Amino acid sequence: QTGGGSAIIASDGMSADTAITVKNSILDRNITDVIATENGRGVNLVNTQWGREYDWNYTDSWDGTTQIKENYGYLPNFVDTAGSPVPGVEIKALDVFGDVQFAQTSGGSGEITEQTLKTWQAERTVSGTSTTDFNPYTVTIKKYGKKFIEEAKTFAARTVETKQLETDTFTTLTEEQAQALTGITYTAPTKINWSDAETELVDVDNEIALNNTPITQSEFFGLYNNDAKTLIPSTDYAVNYVNGTVSFVAGYASTTVRAVYSHGGQVTLTNGTSTLSVDDLYAYLRLQKADVFTTVNGSDYTLYVDLVIGDETHSGSLVSPTKSITFASGFSYAFKGMGGYVDLGGLVVSGGTGSGGGLPLNISASTGSFYYPGEETAVFATVLNSSGQPVSATVNVYVYKPDGSLLTSMLAPEQITGFFKATTTLATSTPLGTYAVRILATYQGDEVQTNLAFKVLEAPSEFPPSVTVDAPALVKKDTAFVITAFVKSKSGTPIDCDSLALITIRDLIAQSDVVSSVQMSNFDTGKYAYPWSTASSTNYLAIVSCSVSDVSYVGVKEFSSQEMTPEDLNIQTTAGTIYAPGDEVNIYSRTIDGLGNLVSAVVTTEVYYPNGDPLTSGTSTEQTLGFFKFNFTLTATSSVGTYEVRTKAVYATSTAYDVDSFVVGEESRLLKIVSSVGVIYIPGETVNVYSTVYDAFNNLVSATTTVEVYDPDGDSLLSGTSTEQAPGLFKFSFGLTSTTSVGTYEVRTKAVYEDREAYHTVSFTVQKFTVSEWTVVVSDVDTIMPSKTYRAKVWILDNQSNPTDPYTTPTNATSTIIIYDAERTIINPIYISVQKLEIGIYEFTYTIPSNAGQGLWETEVAIEVEQGKTIKQSDYWGVSGSPADVKINAIIDNTVSDITASTTIDNKGSAGYEYHYEYCIVDTFENPCGGSDDIAYRQDVVWIGPEQNWTWTDYLTLDEVYNTGTYWFKLVVYWGTERSTAIRQFNAVSEVTNLLTVYKTGTGSGTVTSDPLGIDCGSDCTENYASGTLVALSAAPASDSDFAGWSGACSGTGICQVSMIDNKSVTATFNLKAPSPPPSGGGGGGGGGGGALPPTPPPTAPSCHGADFNLDGTVNSVDFSILLYFWNTNYPFKNSCVDINKDKKVNSVDFSILLYQWGGPGISFSKIDTRALLVEARGYGIIGKRDYYSGPAYLNRS
């Protein structure tokens, strides 16, 4: 419809639904570059530059669908940091809509087949015209053991590039080891593609809600204006990855949005007793080419999908105590089926929904990090409902040995509503190793479980021994009995005190000692006894002290004395302390005979109201030998007050009674306190006691909370009032001195709110570590540029590799951190900044001056871990102003003896620098440049500006490789005291030659010679020429002969040009001359000799037909191969015709002439329209300046 002036027209004479394809061209200076015609007569532009000036051709009205497509080629190849090809690299290209346009894997040479990518499209239908831009692309490059690459690329021309892949230092398994991993299953996120993507209308609140959650943040994500088919900038919206809500900035209301994204995904561990580590998980997911598990330091990891431990038939585990996993928003971990355990330095779930966790039932649990054989272990659990309120669930605890077998299982008693504690004592023969703890809670049909892990370690010889004191719980006054003490090491071996054990008996009612530090008798190793009687009826505490290696340790036992007649049967009953209306009351009883043996008696229980009326009665149920339980539920209207519990036991002919009581109070009157303190401290550390106070409805209340701390002897160490951090949350801190005694300390906490009180007791242990049990780690820093910030971390770890604060806090004022510059001058510490990141972890920074001396610097760290005990560590690092990035792009020529490489030096610094560089060829990888055993060696200097690069236009060539085989080309660049090296392996090959044979035939004789030299036939009629050489043969007949012509590889009678791409033969025919006619008789005397023949002219010089080097009448791929063979070779050439423009170089100008003559018969250089040639050359990057010439364009504008 526009008429003339177009470069390309898909005419209506073409068949419907066919397209013209234009490759490797330039459409310029046209009124319209492209015109397409209705009914599918379109145009495909491949690697063609144009101005996107187009129009449409039709008759009357438009029919059908027609497209104009723009495409460009993409050819990457992959090398490692040494420049060697990398096979097996997966590369994918996703267009702007998230659709995969190609997915390829590199071959042995590190390359893939060149791909053609659509970048732009115009389409016309009966409904109208639309354009689509497919840029920018997202290109992902993945190879196991290498760092994954993801980059945005806009294709506006054919792209050929080399991608250098760096080693992934966080991959610690070989590819074979990763392939052998079992017990891990990866379910990839579900992708929502453009074709089936949902569309949402932005409401007046500028929000939409995506249908599928949680959204996976490691995958492709794009929101589009569905009508305009354009990408919405990510700065115009915010995404809640948990619930799928997208909030837009103002102006998007009533816009229809199409969403392309991925959701879900999980990793399931079913490895059973075969422990998996975080390194194993990272290696497995890298093997799957998955981006869902990442790290920047090898310690802290981010997981973008769910982690599930266990299934219906297998348990799972993940153990890496020094590593942590943070979950992306919307994702978490869960134990399913058989469950399992996780032992990490941390598990962090992002984007949670409150303390209740949002599930119907939630559980958190804790236990000690390690125990010794013979110790009591304790597991604490808290069970909350979806509102975050504690609930009285049933909590079962299962402990598994290191080999996966069950050690024990138990029901965890509820301490207060929602808080549970289960204990078990390890045998002295308990195997060492990591134990798994599975905690299963059920409540009102819901179930939840979690897992813990602790280690059983060999008890150190200097660990405090234990003192166990025993006495009858109830004794008759004025009747002798024995108090015993048993002293043993943590290994369970009985040991004696340094001297005799000392006993103190304290009257707990009168608060006075009735026996003070009296020696006990030693009747066996580690066993002591003290006989005693009392005339008083009261409660006593027996305290036994024992010194081992001049350190005192204690044990205690409480007992009572009463006026009574010893019975053959005794019953002890406990009924709890406080209940609320509606609670279940549990009454526990124990029956023993006169010798203290448990017996199966018949136990009945009666409960009475506060006014004395009977409430309920019945027979208690025997749980196990001698232990009984009676339970009932209070009504919601039960009276407030003290209830009496009477129990009666009958065994044989004996009967025994006991009385207990409990209080029923209004729910709103109940008060609870839960406190916690660390497990182990060392002298000089700070102890933190945390308390939580809440009422019966689990509402946090601001009570007055006090703390009392008692040392291992039972003496008061200190006391004070806790500080409220937030309503109901309290903290009390105090410091241990450097001389604090080792042992177990008791912490008693008390809360007072209005007229109510609540109590909780916890304990901690003080131990001493030797310096050898401490570890100080300084992060390794490589090279820093001037004006940049040097940043390093220090980790202080105890003997369990747990971060721990040292005795002296690192600061720049305490000379903890010393930095030496390249001249060994100490940097003024006021310029060093030290910051505590968390317990035991510190960061220090220092800004390198712009004029800092380049060279090797040192950081020295001195940490006083205990008073008077210091550990020193150091790290050497460099300061460099102009670091260089070095690449060997390719080996251009690997034919002996001249080896040529394409190389690049990139100045990554902020200042220009004159680099000294050397390059060499060696026959072993380990051989450095510069030794006497180099095969070839050169050196030079080059100046490169800041952030500039230098690529040798004439390449680097070494010409002393005479033997074929495997070699390494090395390029080393020096700056200051530093250097960068690039290495590329190659195979040196011999030159390929083909045999040319000349035959002579006919009745005459003559000689055939060649250019280049070699044939002189005559006598020498065969010669080997390098493959691709163009040989010109000339025939010279003898004086009595004529040259009749060529046959074989040539024809005609002119110069014979033979392209030696394989073995060739040529036949020259010489015939005797015909007899000369007799002289013509003269006459008239004029024109003497008029009958004589003129002399035969000499042979003409070789005739070159432009780019048709093999003279087959067409410029094609054979000629292209010949040109490549002579590329960048030196004059004179074996085939002089390859230098088409006769400038004594075979380069890009000759290449552009060949392209110009492509498909034609070949034209000598003098006949070429040089103006058109320049147009063509510009299309291939030969001439980059627009309007370089004047005159009409070569491409017709008709």
Automatic annotation (TrEMBL):
Gene3D superfamilies membership: 2.60.40.1930, Dockerin domain
InterPro entries: Bacterial_rp_domain, Dockerin_1_rpt, Dockerin_dom_sf, EF_Hand_1_Ca_BS, MG2
PROSITE patterns noted in UniProt: EF_HAND_1
Biased composition (Gly residues): 1081-1092
Region span, Disordered: 1071-1103
Every Bacterial repeat domain range: 997-1072
GO MF annotation: an example: hydrolase activity, hydrolyzing O-glycosyl compounds
Pfam families per record: Dockerin_1, Flg_new_2, MG2
Domain of life: Bacteria
Gene Ontology BP terms: polysaccharide catabolic process
Name used for this protein in its record: Uncharacterized protein
